[in-house]
Design goal:
globular; 2 helices; mainly beta; 8-stranded mixed sheet
Length: about 130
């Protein structure tokens, strides 16, 4: 089975979590809600990739975030590709009133309470990823 390593990060501000809606310009999971995610390149450390993705996708600088928790790596079967799994490295960060500047990968964002996530059409197993961080 083929495996792709990715990071998925959530940003927390008070009791709300940031979720992003993937644009129709991305290759996979178009127009589904997600955390801030990206593919880990080569032997890159997952935490380093998470911080890069947060800056690229949401415009939040490393100096504006604080790591709260890194959960155990998770393996999720991909519904889109045969014999493929996503190896997910989950992170939860805190930020105080960050300004969100989306890039082309996402078309919208919302601040929600954790229990509201189930009412959104999300990438596979996003609730499971979040649950492991809370």
């Amino acid at each position: 089975m083929r495996s792709t390593k990715i990071v998925t990060s959530f940003i927390k501000d008070n009791n709300k979590l940031l979720i992003l809606k993937r644009s129709n310009k991305v290759k996979t999971m178009k127009e589904l809600w997600s955390g801030i995610s990206g593919i880990i390149e080569n032997d890159e450390l997952p935490l380093k990739r998470a911080k890069i993705e947060i800056l690229e996708e949401a415009g939040i600088k490393e100096t504006e975030i604080r790591l709260i928790k890194a959960a155990e790596e998770m393996r999720i079967n991909s519904p889109q590709y045969k014999n493929h799994e996503w190896e997910i490295f989950p992170f939860l960060f805190e930020a105080k009133n960050p300004t969100i500047n989306l890039n082309w990968e996402n078309s919208d964002f919302k601040w929600i309470r954790a229990e509201e996530l189930e009412s959104y059409k999300t990438v596979p197993s996003l609730q499971k990823v979040l649950f492991n961080l809370l």
